[in-house]
Automatic annotation (TrEMBL):
Record keyword NADP present: yes
Domain Glucose-6-phosphate dehydrogenase C-terminal: 203-500
Main enzyme class: oxidoreductase
Any GO CC annotation of this UniProt entry: cytosol
One BP term from GO: pentose-phosphate shunt, oxidative branch
Metabolic or biological pathway, per its Swiss-Prot or TrEMBL entry: Carbohydrate degradation; pentose phosphate pathway; D-ribulose 5-phosphate from D-glucose 6-phosphate (oxidative stage): step 1/3
Function: Catalyzes the oxidation of glucose 6-phosphate to 6-phosphogluconolactone.
Protein name stated in the entry: Glucose-6-phosphate 1-dehydrogenase
Family: Belongs to the glucose-6-phosphate dehydrogenase family.
Active site: H253
Pfam families cross-referenced by the UniProt entry: G6PD_C, G6PD_N
EC number(s) given by UniProt: 1.1.1.49
The gene coding this protein: zwf
Length: 518
């Protein structure tokens, strides 16, 4: 273990981690691999235990074997070092438990005491709820009634999304959870906030004299946020058909990204100060109150059959567990307006969809052209400057500027200066879940969403959902493998803009100065 890791492990006071939903998909694909990576990097120390909890029977050995397989399939590190794996695995035990049965929680409490003694844990408890939302309330009550909150030490709960279906259901959920846990002990996950480049937005904005003074409506023409996915609904049709893109991605990841771009500088880089600034952005969002507003500013679509990379793809209504008449949107785009002094007049265009041509998360900040440019006038080869933040799958930023075309007297040449972070350090950056579990274990809630943020986001989204329900805004079909409904292009066209190509594609005339070797 390195000296730095040792110091970090000390800050992470050891705890018992209770993994509710331990036989589920999220645990297998994200949580076990995250715990292994943290352990391998020395960030968990050795004073911890993990109890896997679900109804299905499993022996400790079977549970550890599930974890081993999950690491083999999904972890950025492999468990090839047998000695390391054995040391890691001995921290894991499994207990079959039905969340609705308080007796099981009393047994769990007794087991916890043994684990404290065995691993030298001082009564700290981290409850991770990888469960369907309707179980969040019952599990909280039974944790309390089963005595699990009586140990000395801290008690934190990490809650998966979705946090409700709309504001009233989220409020009800929150009322239940806060009967048991204090707000400062509730860690609501939005895994986009754990992504390396999302956390980098603060640094790019506030640590660069080049950007900080320009970050306002005097210099920025518009901001574009794209979260595109190539996958369809896969095996989550049952959940997704009730949710749709607006609730699944819009209420949380997209609005959170927007707040990171739009917030005022916090007075300190402390969690509460940052969250205070983020919630002010959400409060400043122009609310789309009427059907006309929604029609004018929001687009919804659903994929029909299509083709990608030579493969025929089914339409959404043909997917497993999806209603063949479904009116659920798999795509949405919106013009979002932030009504404050900094952003008045600057549209934020956001779009997300399933079965789009590429998987990417990208933020494009388009700067205004220099007004009344006496030297260059209104030349069509003067492209606006762009700052592009690439969140995933590649991580990095690039800045597009204009320069003289080499060898020409008059021609102007766009040049993209790129820092590809993932090329520099390899694709082995920590996964979002690693960071977030680590932060929760250290008591740092900066990159988790506070209740006021969640409720404000629902307030904005609910109005759009209500208008759609009453029939406002056509549900436009788009072929799988395309960039979504035509109307999403018109949305920007109405303001004199267009979506910039993602991943720097289709820009043959640009000179790239990059560490990718492009
Ligand atoms: N999977 C993903 O990629 C993502 C998931 N999420 C969220 O994470 C949560 C979990 O998702 P996911 O893992 O996919 O869901 P799964 O359906 O795969 O797993 C659900 C888990 O809950 C357990 N469970 C269900 N009922 C009970 C009960 N009464 N008592 C005890 N355990 C119970 C199941 O175990 P058993 O049947 O053995 O009891 C299983 O382990 C959800 O809120 C989801 O929205 C969020 C983002 C991404
Ligand atoms: O929360 C969710 O996010 C995933 C996309 O996450 P990413 O990290 O792979 O970009 C999305 O597929 C899923 O529908 C949604 O629930």
């Amino acid at each position: 273990m390195t000296e730095q890791a040792r110091t970090e492990a000390a800050a992470t006071a050891g705890a018992v981690y209770y993994l509710f939903g331990a036989t589920g998909d999220l645990a297998r694909r994200k949580l076990f691999p995250a715990l292994f990576s943290l352990y391998k990097e020395g960030k968990l120390g050795d004073d911890f235990a993990v109890v896997g909890l679900a109804r299905r029977p499993r022996t400790d050995e079977q549970f550890r074997s599930d974890i081993y397989e999950s690491i083999g399939e999904f972890c950025r590190y492999k468990a090839t070092d047998t000695e390391l794996w054995n040391r890691f695995a001995e921290h894991f035990v499994y207990m079959s438990l039905d969340i609705n049965n308080v007796e099981g929680f009393r047994d769990l409490n007794r087991l916890s005491g043994h684990l404290d003694d065995k691993f030298g844990i001082a009564g700290n408890r981290l409850f991770y709820l990888a469960l369907a939302p309707e179980l969040f309330g019952p599990v909280s009550f039974n944790l309390r009634d089963g005595g699990l909150l009586e140990s000395k030490g801290w008690h934190r709960v990490v809650i998966e999304k979705p946090f409700g279906y709309d504001l009233p259901s989220a409020q009800e959920l929150n009322d239940q959870i806060t009967q048991v846990f204090r707000e400062e002990d509730i860690y609501r996950i939005d895994h986009y906030l754990g992504k390396e480049m999302v956390q980098n937005i603060e640094v790019i904005r506030f640590a660069n004299a080049l950007f900080e003074p320009l970050w306002n409506n005097k210099h920025i023409a518009n901001v574009q946020i794209t979260l595109s996915e190539t996958v369809g609904v896969e095996d989550r049709g049952g959940y997704y058909d009730k949710s749709g893109a607006l609730r699944d991605m819009g209420q949380n990841h997209m609005l959170q990204l927007l707040t990171m771009i739009a917030m005022e500088p916090p007075s300190r880089l402390h969690g509460e100060d940052i969250r205070d600034e983020k919630v002010k952005v959400l409060r400043s969002l122009r609310q789309y109150e009427t059907d006309e507003d929604v029609r004018a500013h929001v687009v919804r679509g659903q994929y029909g059959s299509g083709e990608a990379r030579g493969k025929a793809l089914p339409g959404y209504r043909e997917e497993d567990k999806v209603d063949p008449q479904s009116a659920t949107e798999t795509y949405f785009a919106a013009r979002v307006l932030v009504d404050n002094l900094r952003w008045a007049g600057v549209p934020f265009y956001i779009r997300t969809g399933k079965r789009l041509p590429v998987k990417t998360t990208e933020v494009v900040v388009e700067f205004k052209n220099i007004p009344n440019n006496v030297l260059f006038g209104q030349r069509h080869d003067l492209a606006p400057n762009l700052l592009v933040i690439r969140v995933n799958p590649m991580e990095g930023i690039y800045l597009k500027i204009n320069a003289k075309q080499p060898g020409s007297d008059t021609a102007v040449q766009p040049v993209a200066m790129e820092f590809c972070q993932s090329c520099q350090i390899g694709l082995n950056t920590p996964e979002a879940y690693e960071r977030l579990i680590y932060d929760a274990s250290r008591g740092d809630a900066t990159y988790f969403t506070r209740w006021d943020e969640v409720s404000e986001a629902w307030r904005f989204v609910d109005k759009i959902a209500a208008a759609w329900k009453s029939g406002a805004g056509d549900l436009q079909q788009y072929p799988a493998g395309s960039w979504g409904p035509e109307r999403s292009h018109e949305l920007l066209g109405e303001d004199g803009f267009h979506w910039w190509p993602v991943n720097g594609q289709d820009e043959d005339n640009v000179i790239w100065i990059t560490n990718t070797g492009k």
